[in-house]
Specification:
By secondary structure, the chain is an alpha/beta fold. It has two domains: 1-99 and 271-362, Isopropylmalate Dehydrogenase; 102-267, Isopropylmalate Dehydrogenase (3-Layer(aba) Sandwich). 39% of the residues lie in helices and 19% in strands. It is built from twelve helices and twelve strands. The strands form two sheets. A ten-stranded mixed beta sheet has the order 2-1-3-12-11-4-5-10-8-9, sandwiched between helices. Helix 6 (167-182) crosses helix 7. The chain is globular and about 65 Å long. Bound molecules: 1,4-dihydronicotinamide adenine dinucleotide and magnesium ion. 1,4-dihydronicotinamide adenine dinucleotide is lined by residues 14, 18, 70-73, 86, 89, 262-263, 279, 282-288, 294-295, 298, 336. Homodimer. Its cofactor is Mn(2+); Mg(2+). Mg(2+) binds at residues 225, 249, 253. Residues 5-354 form the Isopropylmalate dehydrogenase-like domain.
C-alpha cells in the first residue's frame, strides 16, 4: 500500500489553532499517512499576494485529501473580490472538481441544552445534508448589472443572476446522495422548488430517474420552504437530504443551529474519484482567534470524515468519533458548548483530551 498524503491548509484566524489539534490526532493514530502544510487565504495573501498561490494548489492536487481550517478576516474586506481570502475555497472547489458538500448535523446527547430547540426534538439527531456545490444561481451565466431592458421599470438599473443545472450535474450529486442514504437508513429527501422554478422541476425529474437505480432507498420530495419548516418542527424526521447549491447553503446552516454549536460540525466536499476537502463548517472566527478558546472538535470530526471517505481508514475514523463522544460524555467543554455553570477548557486542552481518549481505544 502506498503512503497517503494529506495536504494541510490551516488558513486564517482560528484555523491554525484548530488544525494543530487535528494534526496531533493524526500523529496519535500512527497511520501510514504523511502530512504537508501550505499557506492559504489571508495568510497566503500576506506572503505571496494571492489567497490561493500555485504552490498551494499544486500540493492540494497531488495529495489524496485536503484538511482545511478556515479563511478570512475583516482586515481583507477592502481587497478586490478575487484577492479576498474566501476566494481560496471557491478556487479549490473549482480546481479540484469538488461538487458534493456533505454536512452531517449530529446532536450529541450531552449537548442538547445548547440547541435552539427543545431537547426532545434534537436529542439523538443525526442527519446528513448533501449540497450540490458547482451549479445553480451561484455560478450561472449570464449575470451582471445593466439598464432593465423591459418591464415596468425599463431603463432603471438592475442586477440579475441565472439559475441553471445540467443533467450530468444533477445525476452525479443524486448518485452521491443515494449511495450515502444506502450506507445509512435508506431514506433520501430531495429538496426543490419545482412548483415555481423550471430548474428545480428538472432537478426533481432527474433525481426521480436516478432513483430507479436505487430501489432499496425510499425517496421523497419536499419544497424548500416546507423543508425549512420541517427542519425546525421535526428534524429527526429526516435522514439524508440532497439539494442544490443555494438551498443547501441555507438549509445546512439552519441544521447547524439545531445541534447547538457550529464548533462541532464537520464537512466534506468530494469529487467523483473519492478525493475530498474536509473542513469545519464554521469560519475563521477572528473574534476569538489566538486566544486558545476555539472548539477544535469540528476540525477533528472533519479529519474523521477524511479518513473514512478519502483514505479508506474507516476504523481510524470510528476511533476518532468514539474519542470525541467519550470526551463529551466525560464533561469536557470548550466555551461555545459549555452550559451555564460548566467550566470551559481551551483549544489545546480539548486536543489533549481527545488524544488521551484515543490512547484508551484501539
Ligand atoms: P464564523 O463561523 O467564523 O464565526 C461565527 C461565530 O461563531 C463567531 O462568534 C465565532 O467566534 C463562533 N465560532 C466559529 N467557530 C468556532 C469554534 N470552532 N469554536 C468556538 N466558536 C466558534 O463566521 P463569521 O464570523 O461570519 O466569519 C468570520 C470569517 O470567516 C469571515 O471572514 C468569513 O468570510 C469567513 N468564513 C470562512 C469560511 C471558510 O473558510 N470555509 C466559512 C464561513 C466564513
Ligand atoms: Mg453558508
Amino acid at each position: 500500500m502506498t503512503t497517503k498524503k494529506i495536504a494541510v491548509l490551516a488558513g486564517d484566524g482560528i484555523g491554525p489553532e484548530i488544525v494543530a489539534q487535528a494534526l496531533r490526532v493524526v500523529d496519535a493514530l500512527e497511520l501510514d499517512v504523511t502530512t504537508e502544510e501550505a499557506l492559504v487565504g489571508g495568510a497566503a495573501y500576506d506572503a505571496y499576494g494571492h489567497p490561493l498561490p500555485p504552490e498551494t494548489l499544486a500540493l492540494a492536487k497531488v495529495a489524496d485529501a485536503v484538511l482545511f481550517g478556515a479563511v478570512g478576516d475583516w482586515k481583507y474586506d477592502k481587497l478586490e473580490r478575487r484577492l479576498r481570502p474566501e476566494q481560496a475555497i471557491l478556487g479549490l472547489r473549482k480546481e479540484l472538481g469538488l461538487f458534493a458538500n456533505l454536512r452531517p448535523a449530529i446532536c450529541y446527547p450531552e449537548l442538547t441544552a445548547a440547541s435552539s430547540l427543545k431537547p426532545e426534538l434534537v436529542a439523538g439527531l443525526d442527519i446528513l445534508i448533501i449540497r450540490e456545490l458547482t451549479g445553480d444561481i451561484y455560478f450561472g451565466q449570464p449575470r451582471g448589472r445593466r439598464a432593465a431592458p423591459d418591464g415596468a421599470f425599463a431603463g432603471a438599473d438592475e442586477a440579475f443572476d441565472t439559475m441553471r443545472y445540467t443533467r450530468p450535474e444533477i445525476e452525479r450529486i443524486a448518485h452521491v446522495a443515494f449511495r450515502a442514504a444506502r450506507g445509512r437508513n435508506k431514506r433520501l429527501t430531495s429538496v426543490d422548488k419545482a412548483n415555481v422554478l423550471e430548474t428545480f422541476q428538472f432537478w426533481k425529474d432527474v433525481v426521480t430517474e436516478v432513483h430507479a437505480e436505487y430501489p432499496d432507498v425510499t425517496l421523497d420530495h419536499l419544497y424548500v420552504d416546507n423543508a425549512a419548516m420541517q427542519l425546525v418542527r421535526a428534524p429527526k424526521s429526516f435522514d439524508v437530504i440532497v439539494t442544490g447549491n443555494m438551498f443547501g447553503d441555507i438549509l445546512s446552516d439552519e441544521a447547524a443551529m439545531l445541534t447547538g454549536s457550529i464548533g462541532m460540525l464537520p464537512s466534506a466536499s468530494l469529487d467523483s474519484s473519492g478525493k475530498g476537502l474536509y473542513e469545519p463548517s464554521h469560519g475563521s472566527a477572528p473574534d476569538i482567534a489566538g486566544r486558545d478558546v476555539a472548539n477544535p472538535l469540528a476540525t477533528i470530526l472533519s479529519l474523521a470524515m477524511l479518513l473514512r471517505y478519502s483514505l479508506d481508514h474507516a476504523d481510524a475514523a470510528n476511533r476518532v468519533e468514539a474519542a470525541v463522544r467519550e470526551v463529551l460524555a466525560s464533561g469536557h467543554r470548550t466555551a461555545d458548548i459549555a452550559g451555564s455553570g460548566e467550566r470551559a477548557i481551551g483549544t489545546r486542552t480539548m486536543g489533549d483530551a481527545v488524544v488521551a481518549a484515543l490512547g484508551r481505544t484501539t
